[in-house]
C-alpha cells in the first residue's frame, strides 16, 4: 500500500495537464523524539510567546511578523501583505523551462519528493513528460508553494516516476571559491596516485543503506526499551581509545604502511 500523499495538484506543460500526487522522499518519523517535562510533577512543559518587556503572554491575534530595520525598530507585515507575494496557484506545477540535467550542481538540491500520477487517466500525459526529459537529458524547472514558501523546484525523471527537488535559494548557496580559491591546483605524483588508488580498491564495497545508520538512535531505543521494562540501562561497551595519527612527513611511507595495515586487517 502506497503511503498517503501530502500534496495533490496538477503537472502542466503547455497545454498538457495531468493530476498528480506528491510525497516526501525522506522521513524522520522513526526518529526518537522527546517532550520536555516538569521533573517534579511529570507534567508537560508548554511554551508560549511573551512580551519581551512586560513579560505578559501575547494572544495569537496580536502576533504579527516584523522585519528588523534597526535596534528595536521593525517594519510590520500583516497577513494580507504576505498573501500578496504568494503564487496565484499553489496546486499546479507549471514547467517553465528545461535545462541540461548535469548543469545543476548537487549543492542546489534541497528536499526530494516523489511525484506520481493521481489516476490512470493522467498516466499517459505523465509518462510522456517523464520519458521526454529522460530522452533529452534534461530536467524541468518550475515554481511552487511548499512548506509555506514559494520555492524553485526541479523535476527529474527517475524510474517510472519523477523526483521533485526543492532547490536552495540563490542567497543560501555560498561561493566555493571563497573556500577553495586559495588551494593550489598541484597534480600529485603518479607514484602517490597509484598507491592511493590501490588503497581505494582495498576499501571499495557496494553501497548499502546500513552505511548511513544512526548508532545514537539505536542506543536510545535500547535505553528506552530497558526503562520500559524497569531494568537498568544496558551497559555501554567501552570503545577503544582512538589511535593518535603518526606525524608522518613522508606521504609515500604513510601510504605503504596504510596498504600493509589493510592487508593485515583482512
What does this structure look like?
By secondary structure, the chain is α+β, with helices and mostly antiparallel strands. 25% of the residues lie in helices and 26% in strands. It contains six helices and ten strands; from the N terminus they run E-E-E-E-H-E-E-E-H-E-E-E-H-H-H-H. Strands 5-1-2-7-10-9-8-6 form an eight-stranded mixed β-sheet. Strands 3-4 form a two-stranded antiparallel ribbon. Helix 4 runs parallel beside helix 6 (251-265). The radius of gyration is 27 Å and the shape is extended. The model has no long low-confidence stretch (mean pLDDT 83). With LigD forms a non-homologous end joining (NHEJ) DNA repair enzyme, which repairs dsDNA breaks with reduced fidelity. Binds linear dsDNA with 5'- and 3'- overhangs but not closed circular dsDNA nor ssDNA. Recruits and stimulates the ligase activity of LigD. Residues 227-239 have a biased composition (Basic residues). This is Non-homologous end joining protein Ku. Homodimer. Interacts with LigD.
Features:
extended, alpha+beta, Ku70, Chain: A, Domain 2, eight-stranded mixed beta sheet, two-stranded antiparallel ribbon, 6 helices, 266 residues
Tell me the radius of gyration. Answer: 27 Å
Using the 3D structure, state the CATH architecture of the domain at 7-25 and 86-172. Answer: Beta Barrel
How much beta, percentage-wise? 25-35%
Number of helices: 6
H/E topology pattern:
EEEEHEEEHEEEHHHH
Total beta strand runs: 10
Helix coverage percent of residues? 25-40%
Global geometry: extended
What structural class do the secondary elements suggest?
A: alpha+beta
List segments where confidence is low: pLDDT < 50 over at least 5 consecutive residues: none
CATH topology group of the domain at 7-25 and 86-172? Ku70, Chain: A, Domain 2
Mean pLDDT: 83
Strand order, sheet with most strands: 5-1-2-7-10-9-8-6
Amino acid at each position: 500500500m502506497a503511503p498517503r500523499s501530502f500534496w495533490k495538484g496538477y503537472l502542466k506543460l503547455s497545454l498538457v495537464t495531468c493530476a498528480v500526487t506528491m510525497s516526501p522522499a525522506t522521513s524522520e518519523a522513526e526518529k526518537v523524539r522527546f517532550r520536555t517535562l516538569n521533573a517534579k510533577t511529570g507534567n508537560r512543559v508548554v511554551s508560549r510567546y511573551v512580551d519581551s518587556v512586560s513579560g505578559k503572554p501575547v494572544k495569537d491575534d496580536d502576533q504579527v511578523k516584523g522585519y528588523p530595520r534597526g535596534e528595536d525598530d521593525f517594519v510590520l507585515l500583516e497577513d494580507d501583505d504576505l498573501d500578496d507575494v504568494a503564487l496565484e496557484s499553489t496546486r499546479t506545477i507549471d514547467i517553465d523551462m528545461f535545462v541540461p540535467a548535469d548543469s545543476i550542481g548537487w549543492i542546489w538540491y534541497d528536499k526530494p519528493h516523489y511525484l506520481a500520477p493521481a489516476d490512470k487517466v493522467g498516466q499517459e500525459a505523465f509518462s510522456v513528460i517523464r520519458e521526454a526529459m529522460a530522452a533529452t537529458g534534461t530536467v524541468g524547472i518550475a515554481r511552487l508553494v511548499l512548506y509555506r514558501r514559494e520555492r524553485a523546484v526541479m523535476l527529474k525523471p527517475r524510474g517510472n516516476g519523477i523526483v521533485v527537488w526543492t532547490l536552495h535559494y540563490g542567497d543560501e548557496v555560498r561561493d566555493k571559491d571563497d573556500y577553495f580559491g586559495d588551494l593550489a591546483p598541484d597534480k600529485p605524483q603518479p607514484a602517490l596516485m597509484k598507491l592511493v588508488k590501490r588503497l581505494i580498491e582495498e576499501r571499495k564495497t557496494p553501497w548499502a543503506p546500513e552505511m548511513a545508520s544512526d548508532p545514537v538512535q539505536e542506543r536510545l531505543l535500547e535505553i528506552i526499551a530497558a526503562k520500559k521494562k524497569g531494568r537498568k540501562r544496558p551497559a555501554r561497551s567501552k570503545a577503544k581509545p582512538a589511535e593518535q595519527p603518526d606525524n608522518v612527513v613522508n606521504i609515500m611511507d604513510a601510504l605503504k604502511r596504510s596498504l600493509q595495515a589493510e592487508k593485515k586487517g583482512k
